[in-house]
What does this fold into?
Amino acid sequence: MPPAKTPRVVFSDFDGTITGHETLVGMFQKLCPGDVEETMRRMVEKKLSLREGVAHLASCLTPSHVPEIRAYARNAGLRPGFSELLDFLDENKVPFVLISGGLLPMVEEALGPLLPRCAAVHALGLSENGGRLSLFSRFATDGEWMDKAAVMELYPCDQAVAIGDGITDFAMAEKADLVFATSMLASRMKKQGRPYFYFSDFFTVRDTLSRLWTEQAADVRPVEP
It folds into this structure.
């Protein structure tokens, strides 16, 4: 039996969205210095798939890195207003689903006591394989480790809200009814002429959703910065 349809669900990326910067990239730069910037550039230019690029960066990791990975994430810092957004969603009985192409241990460590307030968390797992760490994901495709649009299909709703910042969030934004974007995702939405709400913190997300949901927002429309 398919899951029951709900009125609204908020879907959010983690790296660079919930955190104020790209924690996965920062972690690789710290623990595995080398060709991180070149690999990122090739992914942006689509010379490497997201799956190939992340797998290449992760190839340097060993089980001994796990404590350092967690320590790095612990100090990552969350974008202002995140707990207040969760408060607002709880009050309105709207599930918050986190979908990350990053590492689950980093998500767990960064969110700490806020983790249980997410209705669900989807991120890349780590397993030990021959003294190295391997990535795994239920939602991997040939091109990426986390098919965010496929995850969204697990949570049918009348209104899907997407919050994101980067190249891994394009498909999620295309599937959503409302999009909150910053950084590269905002640039992509603007270039395509698609409506979105720009955000720099989660207070903006909360306040905009409050107007849209409680006042029906006849005069609230997505604007570009």
Summary: Strands lie at 6-12, 96-103, 120-129, 132-136, 157-164, 178-181, 197-198. The chain has a mean pLDDT of 90.
